[in-house]
Amino acid sequence: MRLNLIEWGNPLEDGAQALTLSLSEEIYRACERNEYFQIQEARSLLEGAGLTEIIVVRAGDGSVGARNPNGILRKEWLALTVNMQEDPPVGVRVLRSEFPVLGHQNYTRTGEPLSLCLYNSTWSEIQRSWTPQKFLARVLWWLRESAENSLHLGDQPLEQLFFNTPFQIILPAKHAKESLNPARRLILVEAESGSTELTTYLGYYVDANAATACGMKGIPTLRVNLPPVESSRVERFPATLGDLDQWVENRGGSFFDELAKAIKQLISVTDLSSNKQRPKCVLILLSVPRLRNGTVDKVDDLAYWVTSSLLHLGEACGLLFYDEYRGSWSPVELIGHALEERWKAISILPTQLRYKLDKPLIRSLSCLESADSDFEGVIAGVGALGSSMVEMWTRESWGQWTLIDPDQAMPHNLARHIIPDSAIGSPKVRAVKSILDQIFPEQPPHMAIDASVVDDDVNVSAALSNASLVVDATTTLHVPRELGDRDGTPRIASVFLTPSGKSSVLLLEDRDRGIRISSIEAQYYRAILESPWGELHLDGHSKGEWVGNGCRDISLRLSVELIRLHASLLSRQVRLSQAKSGARACVWDVNDETGGVAAHEITISESKEARSDGWTVRWDQGFIEQVRSLRSQALPNETGGILLGYTDHQLKTINIVKGMPAPPDSISTPTSFIRGYEGQEDVLLDTRRRTAGIVDYIGDWHSHPPKHSSRPSSDDMNLLASLALTMANDGLPVVMFIMGETDCTVTIGTCFDELKDY
To answer: What sequence ranges are listed for the domain THIF-type NAD/FAD binding fold (predicted)?
Structure first.
């Protein structure tokens, strides 16, 4: 069988002796030692991409079937190439002109030998394990697998219809909808990519009238929809409209009819009487449904530059006529053989199409489900932590957020915040919103309110009413407490870092808000007091750095590394926890030496409360179980101890955190209990230290004997009066908690008010 071989490159008279590149010499020696590669000659080529050295071989190891479906020969004529200006610098060209166009081939110009795509990585990765011997083995592997169509696996996405090109256009995510709107114009701007191998154009749509007024040169875009086609081999690009027409016709479609329809539609909204300068090119966008086993698997969008203006293209297609006498264009309908030759001869240049991300793809890339991601949320506090978290959620397209913060961006914020220097002096929410809106500008923008989330503000109220989640990142005590007390507030998540930055905390209400954030806060403090990790949890208060002349112009010393680490952890945990219905409290500790993170999950119990004269006392089932256990251990005697908790005078709430065991010097009998004092000062000092001064003494508790109710006795009321008088020195109310066999009683007293039973 006579083979038609492509003459490529110039023979080297001295053969292998004339090779100058070390890789060429290595490959040549490997071929000499490989029985499946028969060296024919050495060549070279000097053109645009620099020097290419070529080793012509006949290659084949007998593993290619004689009657394989793709017609690959058992021995093929190949050109093994080396060009140090290319990536990778080694390649393979097929010199047989009848060699089939298959998948996994690189783009080559018409008339050049086809190029086999051996690698899907860059040379910097390949060369770590590359050897000439492995290179030759991979050539044989490519021939063997391609011969039987097994190089492209059945579960892979369909192969593209054409090879890649050195041009690409990045279209807006809403391109499919915008391109059908005649009132919108596609504007293409060349990106400063710095690449000499790929030219990139960024596309965006603007109002056609605005584009004209601003002098923008929109590219006329013709959208052509083609019938579905079965998956086919990768092919060379069509060079003319005629080639493209033939490609469509071979698949049962009519390219010209669709092209003419698109041209007419665009002409109908084009001012033909204007003599203004027009773009000298047209962009044709082809939509090609791809079939796999008879079912549409995907839709390919193909793009071609037409080297003609819209008007001249319309004229070549017989749809426009230019009146030289009047100097104007008019719509017409012409037919004829000469006309066909004109439009078919027009050159086209293919370009790759890419799209900006739409919301479903953003979420898919981030491993998110759309069903869990479509909600409105409020983030209160967009400081260093809050801004980093909402930036991550924006990049995942998780939620639509309203940012609420009353603060102004100051110079010291830049050490840890996502905002730039240009934001100094502006409200933080506006600066953060500006950054977030630039991430995916086609997505709905976030809202920003320059206020406190607890302000009596109509915009804040509307945002809270529409939201299903409020993330408190204010790092304050009053915000979550005030929000938690409101019945109309959405589910609340409170996130913060400890003063040292070594730990972060998430407190999250249950979906129905049966356990409010105030109760979870109290249970968090109890965990601090009872857990080994709580020993130094809230330590680390530094004196800070002065960042201004005011007495409040002090900023904590805290690494941005810790901010970003905890922001990543918390943003993910808030997202995952929000999908569940239960309440949650968790602490994460970072080990600086190992880089490890330890999680401490806190069991959350049902909360309870009682009200009287404007005061509310809160406790939880975990506290009840604790004091009930202490009572059981002391039976048959009564027992008791001090109560630890905290009081909020603004909200008039008292939260019980923990009941302590009886001091050693206490007097316990089956019918009475007198609390001692030994060791209690040390207990209170340790409590204040562990909780940063928040939890302190709030009263006493004691038990009643079996078969007695928890109602306070006259002795109990006298004790309460005495305690109230003592606490009055600090202007604080006092709480007495009595644990009975089957019930409990909470009583509050002050030196000013009548004692009330709860």
So the answer is: 378-475
Q: 440-486, pLDDT tens digit by residue? A: 999 999 999 999 999 999 999 999 999 999 999 998 999 999 999 99
Q: At what angle do helices 337-344 and 241-249 cross, to 10 degrees?
A: 100
Which residue in the block uniquely carries the two structure tokens 């005697």?
637
Position of tokens 């049962």?
Answer: 252
| Alpha carbons 619 and 610: distance in angstroms, whole number | 9
Cβ partners under 8 Å of residue 338, min gap 6:
none
Nearest to 464 by CA among 437, 484, 445: 484
DSSP string, 8-25: -SEE-TTGGGG---HHHH
| Encoded tokens for 324 | 């030289």
Three-state DSSP state, 477? coil
Residue 78 has pLDDT above 90, yes or no: yes
Token pair, residue 461, equals 């109220």
Q: Which CATH number fits domain 609-757: 2.60.120.460, 3.40.140.10, 3.40.50.2300, 2.20.28.10?
A: 3.40.140.10
Report the percent of the chain where pLDDT is more than 70: 90
Look at residue 753 in the predicted model and tell me its pLDDT. Answer: 44
Q: What are 625's strand-pairing partners?
A: none
Where along the chain do its domains lie? 10-147, 167-356, 379-602, 609-757
Phi, psi of 669 (to 5 degrees): -135, 170
CA dihedral 718, 723, 728, 733 (to 10 degrees): -100
pLDDT single digits (tens) 650-697: 999 999 999 999 999 999 999 999 999 999 999 999 999 999 999 999
Query: How do residues 189-221 score in pLDDT, each as one tens digit?
Result: 888 877 666 778 888 888 877 766 655 566 777
Q: Are strands 50-59 and 76-82 parallel, antiparallel or unpaired?
A: antiparallel
Q: Please give the single-letter amino acid code of residue 304.
A: Y
